[in-house]
Amino acid sequence: MTRKRHRAAGRASAARVSAPDYFADPSWAPTGRQALAEAGWAAVQSVEPGSALQLMWLRRFCGSASTAADLELLRSWLGGAAPPPGISVDQELRWLILQALVAAGAADAARVEREFEADNSVGGRYAVANTRRWWPRRRARNRRGRPGTSVTLRRAILTGLTHPAHAALTESYVPRHFAELDRIWHEQGGEAARYVAEYGFPAAQVSSATLAATETWLSGDSRPASLAKVVASGSDTLRRAFAARALDRSAGYAG
Description:
Number of helices: 13
Radius of gyration: 19 Å
Oligomer: single chain
Number of strands: 0
Mean pLDDT: 84
């Protein structure tokens, strides 16, 4: 898999996460996602067809789609319906659409495996490893990749595992994440540990308990400096999300 294809796969999974998922009060986040979807769809139809800007807005639409009408539109493109002028439903976009459907509970495991049969490439293996962790069920989220898993597939698994669409399913994962970082560092090496620390960081668990767990780990003795740097960066992101949600509540953007 080339670096270009790696970046494309990363963009596909990242595009399903929008700012409201992290920074908005959870009770208002669906409203924010729908506003982003509407803005994205309007832009897809109004900007220059085939432009990078159109593709950017299309990714944002896919990443925010949640209504039955929006999901049906995405599903129709997988089935062969014509997308807007300038858009090509290539393999990267097919995976992006399918991830949106899976995260919304609108596509099942069989549909994911059929797509993988049609795209049994290195990029397809990355995409399916990521997408399999998006199902809104607990048993799809109980593994993060065994020792020996390539760093690329490890990233795919971790970003799928920690996706905010089903944060309620991974709340119990927070203590395990911090408990295992040092063990992974010593048993699997620094690169594996840094991947787990960065891509497996429980950023979707925006709570005082997660902040406390992060600070407890950082205050421990003899933490590897490069690993602590990654965890500290995750802690900063978590603090920003915590502060943004508090601001939402103070401004009345909460249920």
